C-alpha cells in the first residue's frame, strides 16, 4: 500500500510572528507538511533569535520553534514591505500573527480584515488577553499570564508559589492556535470558506487550570501547593534513595498501599494499621506516612527501589534532569531523535509527538537564517531584480 502524504502537504502558511506562541503553532503546521513563510523584522528578526546562544550559537527558543520554515525579512512600516506580505497572503491558505495589541489592525493584517478580502483564508490572531475587555492592551509575557491565570498559585511549595519551568501560557496558546487552524481547514473543506481564529494566552491557560479552577469554584477551597506531593493522595511524592537519586511514587488506592507496605517497606502490618490503612488516614498523617516510605527508599538504590515498586504494581518514576531526558531510554528505544539543519550545522531534535502510522514521517526542515529566503520569495510574488535591489538598498528587505 502506498504511504499517505503528510496531511498538510500543499497548505501554505504566512506568519508575522515572534517569541513562542505563534512560532510554536506554525512549527506544528510545518512538521505536518505545510509550507510556512516566516515574516521577520529586518533589524534582527524575531527577537527570540537573541534570547540566548545555547544551541551552538543559536537561541534555544528559536531552534525549538522555527524549524522547517522559510524566512523573509521585511520592514512592514514601509508600504513596499507591507505590499510584499499582502502578495504572499493572497496565495496563502493560512495567516498567523501575534503582534502587539493593535499593531496588526493598523497594518490591515488582523484576521477580520484579511478574511473579508480573502474568504478562503484561515487567519489567526494570537493575543495575550483577547481583542476586547479591560486587559486587551496590557503587555502579556508568559510569566505575567501565568500569574494572571492563577497557575503560580497552584505550583510550588506551601511557602512559595513558583512559575512553571516552561512557557506554559505560550505553549497553551500555540496548541489552541494549531488545533484552531486544523478545525478551520476542515470547515473550509466543507463550506469553501476559511474565517478568523482568535486565541488568547489567558483563555488558553485558564482552560488548562480546569481541575483546580472547578475544585475551587464548586468546592470552595483552592487546592494547596504541595511541591511534588499530591494535595489529596498519600503517599504521592519524590523520595531520596541511597545513591543520591530521587524516586517518585503514587499510591492510588488502599490495595496498593498494602502491597507497598509488604513488598517495599517490609512492614506488612502497616496495611491494616488505622493510621495508614485508608487514603484519608494517610493524608491526615502525611508526615508519618512520608517518614515511613522515605526511610524504606533511603535504604535502597534508585534502580532497586524502582524494581521493587514495579514488581509491586506501584506507579513510580525516576526524577530526571534535562540531561537525563536527552538520554532517556524510552525515547531512544522508539527512535524519536532526528537531526535538523541550521546555519550552524545539524542539531538534534525530537520528532513531534503526533505520529501518523502508514504515512510519511514528520517533515523536520532546517532552522532558517534571518532573511535566508527573502530574494526567492520576493521573486515568487512577481518582483523584478531591480525592485528587490531597491528594497535591499533602502533597508525594506534583508
Could you provide a short overview of the structure?
The protein is α/β, with parallel strands linked by helices. The protein is 40% helix and 14% strand.
Write the layout of secondary structure elements.
Blueprint: E1 12-16, H1 21-31, E2 35-40, H2 60-65, E3 69-73, H3 79-90, E4 94-97, H4 103-107, H5 111-117, E5 122-127, H6 142-148, H7 151-154, H8 168-191, E6 195-200, H9 201-208, H10 210-219, E7 236-240, E8 246-250, H11 254-265, H12 279-284, H13 286-298, H14 302-311, E9 315-318, H15 322-326, H16 329-333, E10 337-340, E11 347-350, H17 374-380, H18 385-393
Parallel strand pairs: 1-2, 1-4, 2-3, 4-5, 5-6
Antiparallel strand pairs: 7-8, 8-9, 10-11
Helix pairs in contact: 1-8, 8-9
Helix fraction bin: 40-55%
Beta-strand residue percentage: 5-15%
Largest beta sheet: strand ordering: 3-2-1-4-5-6
Uncertain segments are none
The structural class is alpha/beta
The span between the termini is 45 Å
Mean pLDDT across all amino acids: 96
Report on the structure:
With 398 residues, this protein is of the alpha/beta class. It is built from 18 helices and eleven strands. It has a six-stranded parallel beta sheet, sandwiched between helices. A three-stranded antiparallel beta sheet has the order 7-8-9, with helices on one face. The chain has a two-stranded antiparallel sheet with strand order 10-11. The protein is elongated and about 85 Å long.
